[in-house]
Amino acid sequence: MLLNKLDNWSARLGANLHVPGKDLTNERAYRQFRNFKDVFDLTFENPTGYRTPCSSTVGLDYFDYMLPGIDYDFLHQKEYRAIDPEQVIGCSWRNYPVPGNPLEIMEKLNSAPRGDSNRAIYIQIEDLPLFIASEGQNRVELFRRHQQLINASIKKLTITRRPVIMRNIAGDRWLATWPNKFSVTIIATVPFPTISLPIYRALGVEIQSTRLPVDENDVQRSYENSIEGLAGAVGIP
Fold it and tell me: What superkingdom heads the lineage (predicted)?
């Protein structure tokens, strides 16, 4: 309680709370979030055992892991349009042979008709210029390399629950907290706040300066089964 009062007094006096990633522009925040998946893929052991030939993690699994407490649904309507691959969370081209005729391949992929397995399907996160590759994950890097737009069917992800972000009592961790369907408060550590907090903010999530007096043992964490330990060892925030 005393710490919270001190925080409130500091705020009134004009002191700035240091929130990781606060100074990033939205465009840089989206790019950082997208690029970090490459680090994630190199080190993360997916507990479900799901693999693609080019990635350890499905894009939507990455989104779920990085933003605990966010719940969402998908709108039924779809549209078909060209998307900048720089805005897409996808996979790298590794473990696939680099094609000798990339322009022909990209033209074939872009001209795939509705229902064809070559047609890209992307999930747009709310109205943000940020997409998750649902089908056609591995082609994203190819289109980036050649600076070509990707024709894709788009379905919209809409947020149905936003957590509240606070710090722990020591002030050295960021926590996402939300009530579950039984009105029990769930608390989870935000795994990489420098990467995740700007995206939370873009999605309208409240980031508070208060500290949550909670026992660390009560906080949901997956430290041993995640890349947090590895990332910490190499200095990733």
Answer: Bacteria
